[in-house]
Amino acid sequence: MSLQEILEFRRSVRYFDEAKELDTEKVKHCIELATLAPNSSNMQLWEFYHITDPEMMKKISHACLDQKATETAKQIVVFVTRRDLHRKRSKTFLEFEKENIARNSPPEKQEKRWKNQRAYYTYLMPFIYSRFFGLLGIFRKILSVFVSLFRPMVTSISESDMRVVVHKTCGLAAQTFMIAMAEIGYDTCPLEGFDSRRVKKLLKLPCSAEINMIIPCGIRKGTRGIRGERFRVPFEEVYRII
Predict the structure, then answer these.
(1) What does the alpha-carbon distance between residue 187 and residue 18 come to, in Å, rounded to a whole number?
(2) CATH fold for the domain made of 3-83+161-226
(3) Which of 19, 79, 87, 206 would disulfide-bridge 213, Cβ 3.0–4.6 Å?
(4) Whole-prediction pTM value?
(5) C-alpha angle 88/93/98, rounded to 5°?
C-alpha cells in the first residue's frame, strides 16, 4: 500500500475477529519500527510492553474497563513514558555519539561537536529533566522567562512541561506503530480510557513511569467495530497558510 492507502486503511477498530490470530514476531517488528519515531533530543524516554499472555491480557482488559477492543484483542501493546531514565539515556547516547562523531564528522569539527554534545547531555539534559517536588521546575521556569526578556529562549521547561514533552514523544512512537501495523493489514485501537494505577501495578512499573497509551491489536471483523464512515472537521477549518 502507498502511505495514503495505509492512512485510509487505519481505523480505530473496537471489535476484533476472535478467530484470527496475529503473528507475534510481526507485531514485535512493528514495535521496533516505532522506535524510529522522532523524539525530543533523541532521549527516547519510552518503553513498550507487548502483552501476549492470555491471563495478563484479561487483567489488562479489566483495567481498561472491559472495553470490547481489549476483550477481543489478540495482543496488547502498552506505551510507557520514563522520565526517570534521563540520566541513563543521556549516558547511552553519549557513548554512541563519541564514535558517531569520529566516523561521520569532518576532522576539523570533531572536537567542537563532541564538546557541545557532551555539555548538552551531561549538564543540560539532567538539568531539564531533573525533578524535586516541582521546585526545580519552578526555578527553571523563572530562569528561562528572565533570559527570554533579552533573547529567544525556550520557556516551557517546568516539570509539567517536561511531562508533556515525553508524552508527545511517546505518542509519536505509538502513531508510528499503528501505521506499521496497518501496512501489514493488522488493526489497532488507541485507548485513553483505562485505570493507569492498576495497569502500572500489573506491569510492575515504578511510580515515576506513566502510561501514555494502550493499544489493543487484532484483525477487524468486516465492518463490525468500525463506527461507519470516518468523520473529520472540514480541512478549511483547521488549515492556515501564512
Answers:
(1) 13
(2) NADH Oxidase (3.40.109)
(3) 79
(4) 0.94
(5) 130
